[in-house]
Amino acid sequence: MEKYYYSYREFLEDTKTLINRCKEYDCDVLLAISRGGLTLGHFMGEALDIRNVVTLNSIHYEGTKKLDTFNIFNIPDLSDASKVLILDDIVDSGETMREIFRILKEKFPHVEFKLATLFYKTTAVLQPDFSVKEAPAWIDFFWEVDLKE
């Protein structure tokens, strides 16, 4: 399997680009999908001066293997939110994100949700509202591999 190493320096530049693309949305909550969206959530929260940064957990992959099930848990209370920007590293198949959107819209029908990712695949069943790059191959993000070496 072809892999692409995504460095901190590239992440920093891409995050700056994504921040500029998302500013117009003017959300009141950043929702980072754990674990891929956590680093992005922290950086964007700092840059946009948004302290209301929350997370939820989603598991649909074990390493490079896609699982047959979705495990979405630790959903935050967004009852007081009006505009939520969901953050993740990549939209791969889009199946997990589609399920996250379904659950969130069911629980919080008054909230407007938009999605921002660093990478996307054109074949995904759901595309981000804001993104930076099309995924060139399987991506090894620095936060996944650098501490394991």
Structural class by secondary-structure content: alpha/beta
Element pattern in H and E? EHEHEEEHEEEH
The number of helical runs is: 4
What radius of gyration results from the CA coordinates?
Answer: 15 Å
Largest sheet: 6 strands, mixed
What percentage of amino acids are in beta strands?
Answer: 35-45%
Number of strands: 8
Descriptive notes:
With 149 residues, the protein is of the alpha/beta class. It has one domain: Rossmann fold, CATH 3.40.50.2020. It has 4 helices and 8 strands. The protein has helices at 8-22, 38-48, 95-107, 142-145, and strands at 3-6, 29-34, 53-62, 65-73, 83-91, 112-120, 130-134, 138-141. Strands 4-3-2-5-6-7 form a 6-stranded mixed sheet, with helices on both faces. Strands 1-8 form a two-stranded parallel ribbon. A hairpin with a 2-residue loop joins strand 3 and strand 4. It is globular. The two termini are 19 Å apart.
List its traits.
single chain, alpha/beta, Rossmann fold, 29% helix
List the helices and strands and how they pair.
Elements: E1 3-6, H1 8-22, E2 29-34, H2 38-48, E3 53-62, E4 65-73, E5 83-91, H3 95-107, E6 112-120, E7 130-134, E8 138-141, H4 142-145
Parallel strand pairs: 1-8, 2-3, 2-5, 5-6, 6-7
Antiparallel strand pairs: 3-4
Give a short summary of the structure.
The protein is an alpha/beta fold and 149 residues long. It is built from 4 helices and 8 strands; from the N terminus they run βαβαβββαβββα.
